[in-house]
Amino acid sequence: MEGPGSASQGLPLTEQKLNVDQGGPALTKAASRLPIPGLRPKRPATGENEPPKQDWKRARMGPAPTKRASMSVATLRPKAPLAASVHRSQLVSGRCRSSSRAGVAIGAATTTVMTRRPVPVPAAPKPATTGGEEKKRAPWDLKGQVSDLRIKVGAYKEKTQRLAGENEALKQQLDGLEKELKHAMTENRELGSRASLLASELQVCQNQAEERRQEALELSAQKQQLEETLQSKTRVIGELEGVKREMVEANGDLATRLQTREAELRLAEESLAQRSQDNEMLRAQVAKQEQKLHELEMERRYLHNMVQELKGNIRVFCRVRPLLACEKEAQKGMGHLHFLPDNKSLALSKAEESHTGRERKDDITYEFNFDRVFPPPSSQEDVFEEIALLVQSALDGYHVCIFAYGQTGSGKTYTMEGPDEMSPDTAGMIPRAVQQIFKASREMETKGWKYNFTANFLEIYNESLRDLLVLRSEQSSELEIKRVSQNTEELYVSNLSYIPVTSEKEVLKLLQTAKAHRSVAKTMLNEHSSRSHSLFQLRIEGRNASQDLQTASVLSLVDLAGSERLDKSLSKGERLRETQAINSSLSNLGLVIMALSSKEAHVPYRNSKLTYLLQNSLGGNSKMLMFVNISPLEENFSESLNALRFARKVNECVIGTAQTNRK
Ligand code: ADP
Ligand code: MG
User: Which residues, other chains included, contact 315 with Cβ-Cβ below 8 Å and sequence gap of 6+?
Assistant: First the structure.
């Protein structure tokens, strides 16, 4: 039979304590004196279903880890509250084997303390027992009971002593453990700080690892990109190599072509040298030809002039206008006019009435011969054809003067200007002459001639001059005929517009301007124009630098005032003066021509403004043409007859050989 002392021997402290608790208050007291109040674990109240204490502890803590496992965990786990880490019974049952780190298990889940054999306590004298159970003394056996009690007391004393010794030993053990604990805590703190150090190091390492990982990712992305670039570059290289191969082939081809071209170039150079030689020869030939051409040109001029001379320096063309629509309606006939087939003769016949009555006597016929007679159907072009050569003379340096003479309404203006200067069908002699001159001047340019042209357009009314290229209102001062200088016969009109022109277009514009200015007083137009002479002049200056030749000539185109003779008895005042002026200027024109023809010493140029102005154009070195315009109407018979007689006089004149105005 085991006593309470022996029963506690070799058992874990917890079990001993439980036994003591059941056994008596003394042990409880002793156990409760343990100086680690915080270490007492909180346990559920003991019940029937409660597992044994050891099992409960295991259940709460989980299966006890092996010593090595707990050691390894203890080194890494952070510091845990000591109360939870060391069970009181374990503290009681044995000291930790060592103060080393491995010897202290920290953390509730890993609490395992190596048990040590408890300090031996001397056994107490056992009370009298029978067969394992305490033998109950008879109530009367007081001695025996006292002796039992003494034994018991002795045993308790022993036990008390033993427990006190044990307590002392435990206290020592506890001190050691506390030291160890302190040490462990210090270590724990160190470990904790080391752990946090390591944790921060770990964090740093993790950050670095993260950076490395990012770098690795970036690098792999770069690598990917580089691989792609490499691939594309490889592709490009492949393509370029293809191109290079093609280029090399093409180069070879080009080299052969270059050789061919070089050979061709050499041949071309040789042929060029040959050509240059030929060219030189041709140039020399051209120079010769040009000289020959010039000689021929001079010959042409000479012959042309001779033809003109043979035709006469004064020529007269007769033109009979057609009947106007209104005249046809009025059944006015032109039976008195007879055109002969030679195109040079015109006959006017008139039945002379007998003195007694209406019976007709024989017709009286008046025949006239001129250089040309243009019957009514003749077109402007037909007429101009005949004077075109005369216009060429103006370019060759001869003064040329073309007049239109006739009664009002006979077709002078139509002949000279035409109803429309711009129309190629009806344009008159002035626009056609201008066109011809510019056309011929362009042709002459190829022969080395250069020309300057100046135009003016004036009107002579009542012996006074008016510039037709400016408005009447703008005309400031009087126009006067003056000499260019004392030593020359060359004349000019002061205050007159002399407009340099370079093309027919510019001249045609001037003609239109003149027409517009003339028609200002439209109601008076016919009357006014019939009483005034209009004079268009184109001054032509030619220069052939290579031949050192210069020419200067004037082409004058004159639309004369109406030649009709007004009945002086009916004219009075202004009208009389007008009539006299017209008559005198027209008759003076006749006189001048006749004086020239008969080579009189004095030519009365200055007797009228018209002849004075035309002084140089009517001289010996000029070519003159007079149109005598005839109305087809029988009622104008007498006027027609007068005009034809005047023209015949002019036609009979022969003015000496014209001289070209060359310098
Ligand atoms: P003038 O100038 O001599 O007074 P015009 O030239 O004004 O005469 O002519 C008088 C009229 O006769 C005008 O209506 C004109 O159009 C017309 N006429 C003159 N000549 C011709 C012609 N050859 N063909 C057609 N009509 C003409
Ligand atoms: Mg007229």
Answer: 371, 390, 624, 625, 626, 651
pLDDT in tens, 119-163: 454 554 555 554 445 567 788 888 888 888 888 888 888 888 888
Instruction: Give yes or no for a contact between 535 and 558, defined as CB atoms under 8 angstroms apart.
Output: yes
Q: What whole-number distance in Å separates Cα of residue 185 and Cα of residue 191?
A: 9
Nearest ligand by distance to the CA of 564: 1
The residue nearest atom 11 of ligand 1, judged by CA position, is 409
Confidence (pTM): 0.57
pLDDT, tens digit (0-9, with 9 covering 90-100), for 389-428: 888 889 888 899 999 999 999 999 999 999 988 888 999 9
What separation in Å is there between the alpha carbon of 384 and the centre of ligand 2?
Answer: 18
Cα–Cα distance measured from residue 417 to residue 426, given in angstroms and rounded to the nearest whole number: 9
What tens digit of pLDDT does each residue of 283-310 get? 999 888 888 887 887 777 777 666 666 6
Q: Which atom of ligand 1 is nearest to the CA of 526?
A: 4
Whose atoms come closest to the Cα of 428: which ligand? 1
324 lines ligand 1 (CB under 6 A): yes
SS3 386: helix
Single out the residue of 365, 371, 393 nearest to residue 319, CA to CA: 371
Calpha distance 155→127 (Å, rounded): 8
